[in-house]
Amino acid sequence: MKTQNLLSRMDLFFVLGAALFFLSCIFTTLQTARTVAPRQAQFSAGYLQARNLDDFSADPVQLIGVNARLGVAPNFDLGLGHGFDVTKDNDGVFNTVWGDVKYQISNHANENNKLTFSSGLQKGYVYDADADIHITTLPLYLSLPVSNRLTPTLSYRYDLLSSGFFPESESFDNPRHSFILGMEYALKEPDPAKWTPKVAFSIGYMNSLSGSTEDDDPSVFLINFGFKFDSPFKSE
Predict the structure, then answer these.
(1) Contact, 79 vs 98, CB < 8 A?
(2) What is the pLDDT of residues 175-219, one digit of tens each?
(3) Count of domains in the chain?
(4) Within-domain flag for 236
(5) Which residues face 107 on adjacent strands?
(6) 52-66, 102-116, 121-135: which has the highest mean pLDDT?
(7) Mean pLDDT of 135-151
(8) pLDDT higher for 114 or 3?
(9) Rounded to an integer, what distance in angstroms lies between the CA atom of residue 59 and that of residue 88?
């Protein structure tokens, strides 16, 4: 029946409530520890805001992010992304392209109520800055899928910023640390034969935007909200 494809009233209230809260307020990953299945694709788009913790009322940095992921092997996927800096009068200084790989270390059967841990490597390039800025990131993800539709995730990111593709020794003097708490909710029961829409949001803390310890680069509070779409795939 056609009504089976419509969102339930509970789903609509969830989406509207989350949108009103988070869109009233920088680009986090919106990822969980689970990798996408082999030959499965995932597309996402989100809005991120970073606010100065020393002056919360100051104009925030605002980013729009688009991402795509592809499962290439069991428990292993790769992703590409772009963060568009839409901050007023910012001249796109935080426009960034991203690429990453992720491996799911535990809970390979993707069972509910079991801890799922993954890690990988991310590379970013801030191409509109006055100087070349390369970002090398070690991410750690810890998820606990409550059900087939709801997955809370705690993640940590260790960033090294450098002028070259590979981090220099000076990069380790002022690493950037991010701690992020997120939630992913599928708007319908996941079905390997169908597209699955999801909503995701996260809040977090970052010690600085540039990795500097100077007084003019304070720590920031992060808020991220977005939508994700998982493609159909052949289940094992």
Answers:
(1) yes
(2) 999 999 999 999 999 999 999 999 999 999 999 876 655 556 789
(3) 1
(4) no
(5) none
(6) 102-116
(7) 96
(8) 114
(9) 9
* Two tokens, residue 166: 């590979």
Of 159, 203, 195, give the one whose Cα is nearest residue 30.
203
* Strand partners for 126: 96, 133
First to last CA, the chain: 28
Residue 76 contacts by C-beta under 8 Å, 6 or more apart in sequence? 35, 101, 102, 103, 104
Report residue 175 as tokens.
């690493």
Domain extent for 59: 2-230
Q: How many residues does the chain have?
A: 236
- List of E strands, the chain: 41-52, 61-73, 76-85, 96-104, 116-126, 133-143, 150-162, 176-186, 196-206, 220-230
Q: Please report whether residue 85 resides in a domain.
A: yes
What CATH number does residue 141 fall under? Answer: 2.40.160
Residues 6+ apart with CB under 8 A from 90: 61
Return the amino acid letter for 139. Answer: P
Q: DSSP strand E in 10-107: where?
A: 41-52, 61-73, 76-85, 96-104
* Beta-bridge mates of residue 165: none
Q: Number of C-alpha atoms within 13 angstroms, CB side, residue 130?
A: 2
- Residue 80: how many other CB atoms lie within 10 Å: 13
Give the burial class of 110: count Cβ atoms within 10 A of its Cβ; 0-12 exposed, 13-18 middle, 19 or more buried: middle
Runs of H (alpha helix) within the chain: 9-22
